[in-house]
Design goal:
- This protein has an eight-stranded mixed beta sheet, with helices on both faces.
- 33% of the residues lie in helices and 21% in strands.
- By secondary structure, the protein is an alpha/beta fold.
- The chain has one domain: Alpha/Beta hydrolase fold, catalytic domain (Rossmann fold).
- The N terminus is likely disordered.
- InterPro entries: AB_hydrolase_fold, Dienelactn_hydro, Dienelactone_hydrolase-like.
- Keywords: Hydrolase.
- This is Dienelactone hydrolase family protein.
- GO terms for molecular function: hydrolase activity.
């Protein structure tokens, strides 16, 4: 599921900043809100990396009044992401198989601390993640103190549920009821593990994995629209601009 040819179509994305880590400088992309300042959000990418979809969602979050940073979590692999196209899933999975999860968690926690210190950030900092990034953000939330966590179909969550008691931030979870990678039993286990007074959990009939990504084959417009509306409401409540 990969090989050298699988990486030929990696995207070229120019980072707008870097974040110092113990292993070197991690490229990162920053979006400012119209006011130029506000609360912060660390955006955790899908398996496809810093894609046009991630960039659009980062711009959406910034338009809501947030300072957004999207780190290049594949930087240790020499990649920012994969190109949109028929091979994007194969290429994304190949990158994930080479990904050092613990190093990625450290990078996410470092990005969280870095964003908190940015002069443009005048409020709290939350975490938002999609797919691969939904699980990574959950893990980072367990070792930091974000204002909130939003996780879209976090693919690693079934293996991270022992961390659930450590995630004290208000959290919002979205899952499709027709998810090809996370079945109904796994979603039920996740719901039970994360349940709490400040947890919102929504499922969407007929929606598959990655239903929010309009560039991917499983995009579900209705589920995407509803879920994003719930996300905006959650952010306004827990991360006011």
């Amino acid at each position: 599921m990969g090989g050298p040819q699988a990486y030929a179509a990696r995207m070229t994305v120019v980072p707008s900043d870097t974040i110092a880590t113990e292993a070197g400088a991690m490229p990162a992309h920053v979006w400012l809100p119209p006011a130029g300042h506000g609360p912060g959000i660390v955006l955790f990418q899908e398996i496809f990396g810093i894609s046009p979809y991630v960039e659009r969602r980062a711009a959406d979050l910034a338009a809501l009044g947030n300072v957004v940073v999207a780190p290049e979590f594949y930087w240790r692999l020499g990649a920012s992401g994969v190109a949109n196209g028929p091979d994007m899933l194969t290429e994304g999975l190949a990158l994930v198989q080479r990904f050092d999860w613990e190093a990625g968690v450290r990078d996410g926690a470092t990005a969280y601390g870095w964003l908190r210190e940015r002069p443009e950030v005048t409020g709290a900092v939350g975490l938002v993640g999609f797919c691969f990034g939904g699980g990574l953000a959950f893990n980072v939330a367990a070792i930091t103190d974000p204002a909130l966590l939003v996780s879209y179909y976090g693919s690693a969550l079934p293996g991270l549920l022992d961390l659930a008691p450590q995630v004290s931030a208000p959290s919002l979870h979205h899952f499709g009821q027709a998810d090809s990678y996370i079945d109904g039993d796994a979603v039920a286990r996740i719901r039970a593990a994360v349940d709490g007074p400040e947890v919102e959990f929504y499922t969407y009939p007929e929606a598959d994995h990655a239903f929010d990504n309009a560039d991917f084959v499983s995009y579900h417009p209705q589920a995407s629209t509803i879920a994003w509306g719930m996300t905006e409401k959650f952010l306004r409540k827990h991360l006011p601009a």
